């Protein structure tokens, strides 16, 4: 069942295991001076600053020890990409395709993304801090040791995903979908706003605060078929 905690956010307490945050230490980087992404490209120890990757195909590419800052990723194809030990800051884009990709030891800071496709992907030791992501598709993805901090997620789709040691800290979730998701040690107490549109019945394995339980009560009642009416007894 959903665990309820009376305290504030942050992992620890009531048996929930804390997420392991990435510890990215980038080496001295070389400036990227290429002409665009290549399918199955290998990018190691590079700094991409204000690079326009709009509409390009980098499917299967590997980014290792890289920094991407202010890059445009509208309709960029990065299907099956691997992003490892890297920091992505201020990236922006609509329709970025990262489906079935791997993100490991990654910091995503102040991103502005819409309709980004991460379905079937694997995220491990990932920090998403600040920024806003609309219509994030994480269907059937695997998230382990992932922290969403100070960001806004509008209608994120976790349908069928597996979440283990995932924390939501000072972030806003609007219209979240947890249909058929599996949650283990998921800490929702620190969410500044928690709005679950679908899949509230899949919150077993999550911990929420007493206040959040009250906010979710109408949705929980509807799922359980409980009719809530005002007023006292007859008389």
Automatic annotation (TrEMBL):
PANTHER family: BTB_POZ DOMAIN-CONTAINING PROTEIN KCTD9. It comes from Streptomyces lutosisoli. Pfam families: Pentapeptide, Pentapeptide_4. This is Pentapeptide repeat-containing protein.
